[in-house]
Design goal:
The complex is a heterodimer of chains A (328) and B (276).
Chain A: H1 3-35, H2 40-48, H3 53-63, H4 69-81, E1 87-88, E2 93-94, H5 95-130, H6 135-149, H7 152-166, H8 185-222, H9 225-233, H10 237-259, H11 261-275, H12 280-289, H13 293-321, H14 324-327
Antiparallel strand pairs in A: 1-2
Chain B: H1 2-9, H2 11-28, H3 30-33, H4 65-101, H5 103-118, H6 121-132, H7 136-162, H8 166-173, H9 178-186, H10 191-214, H11 225-232, H12 240-268, H13 270-275
Classes of the chains: A mainly alpha (328), B mainly alpha (276).
Amino acid sequence: MSHFARRIRYVVKRLLQAIPIVLAIVILNFLLLQLAEGDAVDVLAGEAGSATPEYMAELRAKFGLDQPLPVQLAVYLKNVMFFDLGYSFRHEMPVSELILDRMMPTLLLMVATITLAVGFGIFLGLVAAMGLNTWRDTAISIFALITYATPLFWVGLMMIVVFSLNLRWFPTSGMENFAMFYEGWDRVWDIAHHLVLPTITLSLFYLALYTRLMRASMLEQAGQDYVTTARAKGVTENRIMFVHVLRNALLPVVTMAGVQVGALIGGSVIVESVFAWPGLGMLAFEALFSRDLNLLLGIFLLSALLVVAVNLVVDIIYSTLDPRIEVS
Amino acid sequence: MTFWKLFARNRGAVVGLAILILITFMAATAGIFFPEDPFSLAGQSMSPPGENGFLLGSDSLGRDVAAGIAHGAKTSLLIGLLATLVAVCVGIVMGALAGYYGGIIDDLLMRVTEMFQTIPSFIFAILLVAIMKPSIESIVIAIAVVSWPAVARLVRGEFLSLRNREFVQACHTLGMSDIRIMMGEILPNCLSPVIVIGSLMVATAILIESGLAFLGLGDPNIMSWGFQIGAGRTLLRSAWWVCTFPGIAILLTVLAINLVGEGINDALNPRLRERS
């Protein structure tokens, strides 16, 4: 079989493997919705102030809530397939529209965070591995240990105290300054200015993670046979480090970056609610406060699907980088 | 004896243990030093640390920050330990069944584990607590639900490698029941990695709990560090101490538990340490 055909087959296989997980997540979502006290009609009746039992029964029939569970599940599956995630009665908007509205800020924050965390993590891990057991290595290890133990929301608040309230370097909250009516590059600059503190806060934990991973990965690769071979051939130590070892050591870090996307979404709920960053995390926080379960479940579903998708993409990229993966 | 010697070789672990003992002492004596309800008005509101008889200041409702930290220590340790205990038990059962029986049971259980690992855990925990209404039980359940897969995978791996060993075959010939072989013979042989992962999970559980409480999903009747920070964030401009000190308490506790966990790892798997 040609190499290309094998690649296609691998991609298709991975896609098929993702289907049961996606299905299971959607069903879990449906079950959680059932588990919650009260349904959409109770919420509507509560909003309206008073509703007769007859009217509520009529509404339930209209929404199909009087049907047996399997039927409701089938309807739910069909709705999700067409990206209909229900209606948010608080915002008086379909959940899917709300989510799409708030998607961009979160993606912006996440891309900035991953770039910063992976970039700096690789750099710090490299520095630590090259100066093994020196003061640099120790300092980086202690830094990793402390960031591992710090709650994100607290870091965010302390950042605000130091850099926003005392030094006045960065704004305390929001994504842009609407009052200034910036346009073009001024607006980009304004958003970037607002982005700094949330990105640093969210990336700290992952920075520590990637640093540790990169350090371990470099040390592991440095003990491999091909390094000895290169050394025997007379390749310089710098070339061995930066060309041979570094390239191989990067692989686990790339995979980990994919695996961590789920945790990153969780972290963005905290960071966005600290900095009032108007993304999905902030939306989830608002939904929590207004007891808007439909919306919360929609965000949950979308983030779970996002994780599946990212893992799929990372797997495929990874198998391109390292063809040995397909064999196993 | 040897365990303690190996543990003490790791200086960080000893420091961690000392901090942890102090925090446990603080939690145990919270009711003696701060007999009042930590939610009650204790004096002048918005007092800076060291003034009006407040060691660490007071918040906008005149609540004593120090009392809150002492009582919050109980909550954090209690929820951390309980949630870990539940997660470890569930993880052991799932992992043991999957690893011991293999085949379809293994496939099925591992698919479930994989699904739970795919779901973004913090949002899942938020959802579970929001649906079950915030209380100690719902928080413990939510944290346990998002933490057990790691234990299950670990235990499964250990069971897979142990189930065909000679001592297990000997048990089969003796006619022991599967449950007795699993729990009485194989499990004790893989307890040390479970203890290590469990000790680190307590730290994660405390972090999750504080995050939930910060978002307003804590048990409303119980003081916790996350709640203090969440309630104090609006006072950031005028009373920095309300948020700062409970955060330091979380940081120290989690750091101490992580250090102790690493020390236990060194002590239980001494060969691993010498290799690295």
